[in-house]
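Please, structure for the following, as tokens.
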Amino acid sequence: MSGLRGALVVLRPAGPGDVPALAAIRDTPEVRARWRGGDDLAAEVAADLADPGTHCLTVRALDRPDRVVGMIQWHAEEDPEYRHAGIDLFLDPSVHGRGLGTDAVRTLARHLVDERGHHRLVIDPAADNAVAIRCYEKVGFRPVGVMRRYERGADGTWHDGLLMDLLAAELVR
């Protein structure tokens, strides 16, 4: 895949040259609060890119395609009895509120449904992340349920997650 074009973004396969930009975004307080990370974010991002089970794409705004503004990744459960794909996303806080996240999720969801043949997609934001939840709802994701004490926060306490899914026919194109 050379890239996926949305209305506002282009998604391109992430490579080693993207690590510094992605690590810098991951290091912003807003992103680190949700994605966390240790002292060497560049090594963590590089490890994510090297994971054969995860497909990492850079997010670039169409008005500045030379600048990485985030990453969207997906993984697939290939067991035919449970086949589906999951999505995760982070964006540079400097581009929040411009619709880039919604367009990135919609663009990847279209690819996963239309090109990869997935009938169901999942995403699991923190239950208190109202902005992310609204973004995913605009694409057609629906809440399935709260996963109690799903994820450990930076403060060491457990926080709830919201499981959301989207069936292919529900994708808001």
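The CA atoms of residues 4 and 11 lie 5 Å apart. The chain is about 30% helix and 35% strand.
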